[in-house]
Amino acid sequence: MKKLFILVIFFISCNNRNEEIPEIKIVTNRDYFPTIRDVIRTSREYIYFTMFVAKIEGYNQVSMLLYELISAKEKGITIKVLLDSSSYDDELNRSNSIFADSLRKYGIEVKFDSPDTTTHAKFGIFDGKIVLIGSTNWTYSSLERNNEVNILIKDKEIAEELKIYFEKLWGKDD
User: Whole-model pTM?
Assistant: First the structure.
């Protein structure tokens, strides 16, 4: 039994590579806005976003996030936003087009997925170190009324894996 214990300890120590443990935080409901705002504000290199729907309706948290992205762009941060495009939902297309036009006015790159594919994903990648992924759309309802759940992950490997996925979606129609 003692030999088995020593053998198990040996294998555990061989596999312990001092890898960093990801920092993970659950972000629900009204905590999303201050979390995403702070992550945008502290980004220094790039911000990549995929969003199902982003809808500007007057001055609210969506328009505040739009201004945060514009401010980040003015600081020289590369920003790319991928939005859904629908073959059947004209309201979604209208909302996303208005949001996209608002970003493009400030030199932010925006693309739409194929209308034949629904991109229901909602995630952001920040500087190859941080990921925010979950259920929150950028709409008044999602940010200020709905029950939503997201996960903030600080981990380079996960961020890189999601960046590869984002770039695959981004370059799909090129």
Answer: 0.86
